[in-house]
Amino acid sequence: MKKNDYLKEVIKHIDIKKYNVVNMVEDMGEMAFSSRELSRAAKIYDKMLRDKNCSVILTLAGSIFSAGLKKVVYDMIKNNMVDAIVSTGAIIVDQDFFEGLGFKHYKGWYHNIDDNELRELHIDRIYDTFIDEDDLRICDETIYKIANTLEPRPYSSREFIEEMGKYLSKNAKNRESVVLAAYEKRVPIFVPAFSDCSAGFGLVQHQWENPDKHVSIDSAKDFLELTKLKIKAKETGIFMISGGVPKNFTQDVVVACDVLGYNLPMHKYAVQITVADVRDGALSSSTLKEASSWGKVDTSFEQMVYSEATLAVPLIAGYAYHKGAWKTRKEKRYSDWLNTDAKKLNGAKVPSLKK
Questions:
Q1: Which of 71, 185, 296, 332 is labelled catalytic?
Q2: In this model, does residue 299 exceed pLDDT 90?
Q3: Most buried one in 87, 104, 153, 352, CB count within 10 A?
Q4: Does the pLDDT of residue 20 top 90, yes or no?
């Protein structure tokens, strides 16, 4: 087989605006097992959007944009259903920014496949999805070019992703991009492990060629900025798709606020979609009730949904979209605040020192 024999059918992103799932999701609440849990999770997310004092943080992990969920998050941003995002690098760079540059993900398969042949053809596989490795190299190179245009200094991932959004605002070939929409709507995107993706390859090349004066990513600055966002927001809710670093990073800001002397409430609302097994004791599978023991998540409005994301996310997000609470929500525009007013908190005397 030739390369074109594999890269034929393009992955299409589901559009939650097309399907009004409200009645179905509410009826699922009258069932049992995962259906009832999903229905409750959808209602909690809708409750977050109706709470005028609540800022919504969306966390993303797993290869979910390559699988067809990019437009769901794009629509959430465009319709004011999320105020900040914490993600893995692969989702934001290798999958969203990648498509913003005009490249595609393709339908593949995982059975009876010769991965060595794929390697020879420069095709990368994510379960049953194919990606052109040559296109990914262009994505890496674009990150390198962006880094070369910036003032050499440490950046938070949020600051660098804003530069990616600015680049797409002028050069995007596909404008249905989460990075671009977030840039335009001033929704900050944090990627705590930013080098663990295509961005890493571009930054490695940039630093290799500029060993003394270069752009670097400061993960502690990420943590500080998200902590400042929590101080500003006070009341927060989390919608977590999968687990990993984004889940814990977002939960930890409550503790960080406490360390700085700010006695702020735990995350008031929390929903997580995961397939991780709680019995292995790992981070992705740890329950939201467990997080309460760490002082991170309130247990009043929390719900775990044990489901693969491509099944659950369109139902939960679609329910909230068609319930329409977003129509009266005010934009938070935290990117603007972090660029200006948040600097006033630097070195400020804390309200009360932790004993």
A1: 296
A2: no
A3: 87
A4: yes
Q: State which H helix or E strand residue 55 sits in.
A: strand 54-60
Which pLDDT band, with edges at 50, 70 and 90, does 344 fall under? Answer: confident
pTM: 0.94
Q: What is the DSSP string of 196-227?
A: SSHHHHHHHHHHHH-SSS--EE-HHHHHHHHH
Structural element, H or E, at residue 306: strand 297-306
Query: Which CATH superfamily includes the segment(s) 21-343?
Result: Deoxyhypusine synthase (3.40.910.10)
Domain locations in the chain as residue ranges: 21-343
Q: Give per-residue pLDDT as tens, 25-81.
A: 999 999 999 999 999 999 999 999 999 999 999 999 999 999 999 999 999 999 999
267-274/297-306 β-pairing: parallel
φ, ψ of residue 339 to 5 degrees: the values are -75, -20
Distance CA 24, CA 38 (A): 11
With beta carbons less than 8 A apart as the criterion, state whether 271 and 247 touch: no
* Token duo for residue 141: 């190179």
Query: DSSP labels for 106-169?
Result: EE--SSS--HHHHHHTTEEEETTEEEEHHHHHHHHHHHHHHHHHS-SSEE-HHHHHHHHHHHHH
Instruction: Note if 47 is an active site residue.
Output: no
